[in-house]
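Re: your question about DUF1569 domain-containing protein

S., sorry for the slow reply, the queue was backed up all week. Below is exactly what I fed in.
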Amino acid sequence: MKDIFNQADTMEILNQIDKLSPSSRSQWGKMDVAQLLAHCSAFNDIAMGETFPPRGWLGILIGTFVKPFFFNDKPPARNMSTIMIVEEKEFETEKVKLKQKNITSQNNGPEKCTSHPHPFFGKLTPEQWGIGLYKHLNHHLNQFGV
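Result:
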């Protein structure tokens, strides 16, 4: 499986991000492209141990059981429950921020991943964080047609 700690996979993601523009439109969901970039950066912050959101009750109840349905070769379902970014964001700022976070994650490698549980899935290995980062980014970039 692809993961953000593989340099070629990171380059693929960075190239996808570069194809976005302020006029990119979502094929599903409610966030605009700048909000989406901020959302993806927030997920990266969780994986790298920069933020520590608590586990929600739904994740505590079923997160561990549905983990195998995410960490596989199938794309995630559209319109899954997510952390929404509702405030306005500036596209270029968010684009630069997300690209830099992915470069840093790739350079730091799996050993810099958090040991704090994922807010939905619970405990993840560093390898699962890498796969999750890639898969989450790719899913949302596909949402915007890139």
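Residues 91-108 form the longest helix (18 residues). The mean pLDDT is 92.

Happy to talk it through on Thursday.
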